[in-house]
Automatic annotation (TrEMBL), chains A, B:
Keywords: ATP-binding, Kinase, Nucleotide-binding, Transferase. GO terms for molecular function: ATP binding; kinase activity; thiamine binding; thiamine diphosphokinase activity. This is Thiamine diphosphokinase. It comes from Listeria monocytogenes serotype 1/2a. The lineage of its organism: Bacteria, Bacillati, Bacillota, Bacilli, Bacillales. CDD domains: TPK. Its EC number is 2.7.6.2. It is an enzyme of class 2 (transferase).
Amino acid sequence: MKTINIMVGGPASEIPDLAQYTSGEISWIGVDRGAKRLLDRGIIPTIAMGDFDSLSKEELTYLKTKVADVLEFPAEKDETDTEIGLSWAMEQKPDKIRIFGATGGRLDHLLANLMMLTKPKFLSAVPVVEMIDRYNYIKMYTPGSYTIEKLPDKKYVAFTTMRDVTGLTLKGFAYPLENATYPVGSALSSNEFVGQMGEFSFKSGMILLTQSND
Amino acid sequence: MKTINIMVGGPASEIPDLAQYTSGEISWIGVDRGAKRLLDRGIIPTIAMGDFDSLSKEELTYLKTKVADVLEFPAEKDETDTEIGLSWAMEQKPDKIRIFGATGGRLDHLLANLMMLTKPKFLSAVPVVEMIDRYNYIKMYTPGSYTIEKLPDKKYVAFTTMRDVTGLTLKGFAYPLENATYPVGSALSSNEFVGQMGEFSFKSGMILLTQSND
């Protein structure tokens, strides 16, 4: 199981304890300010990338002494920093990609990070990408049937429709559904697992699933 | 100018300094844990509402000694807490409604709070509602022509499409647009005002505008 962890530049207050995400065959990508944050936490990323305009000249010089591969790109570009990090990660053909630092702070960054996964160019990334912060575990789904496990530290589960959704069936949750239809932008919030596992399926659309805590 | 401020229950770390939002003809609504937060900050809301399952029995008893009007409703309901607060606020026919505590923490709550304003039942609320946190000023727009002012403490402006958008024109921003079309879920992030004012217009769809800071 080859996993790539990406740290982007959102506020440190939203970053979870990383200890549980550092075991196994893991490599780290540090994106922009996220690269410095990794060094601050004693993690040396395989590669750092970004326009680095949030770092001082001294910080960038220090970064280059620590990280073997530093990829600088211009501040004005068509892709977001997270997209550039995700594209690089996808090329390594990992089994899983976790993104940290994508939430909190600027809401336009959060929305861009969520919307990114609805773009055709990242369709192949959808099954392998997770976003994780202190309060939330976030995963996007394309049509199909899924069995998911309750995360031990999370109470709530929610299904938000990122495209018009048809045929949505939920089993094993406090509020089950059978073959339901919801337009894009429906926030089916504050559901809960009945037991340890839940099943859901849908025929068309896209769903953003979150497991979260207050 | 009659303004109603609503405090809902998101993490305290995301709440801005409220001093600048307490002058003039202001009344406060405290929703669920938000009611306690207002009391903690020395603000007595006109009304408190919620299922209050996040408060202890003692906290709720104390709340009732301080707030003249406390409206309790069941935890299982079709509307979110924020929706109930917003519905009550709309009935008072205010010129402006500011919502605090709607961001940070649970992402399903944030998404539900944003999506709420795309619902037909809240269409009349769209022009008067703002959401405000430490990093972001958030406002939803329906088709039309608008002139907006740069907020003095915010650097970035972003346009996120909450419905398919046609005829989008942006003037007075670093990245202008002319009669552009974007599907739902496009995140036009990290734009900036050129001067103090910007203009935008669009023919169909819905747009979420954010002004934000790192």
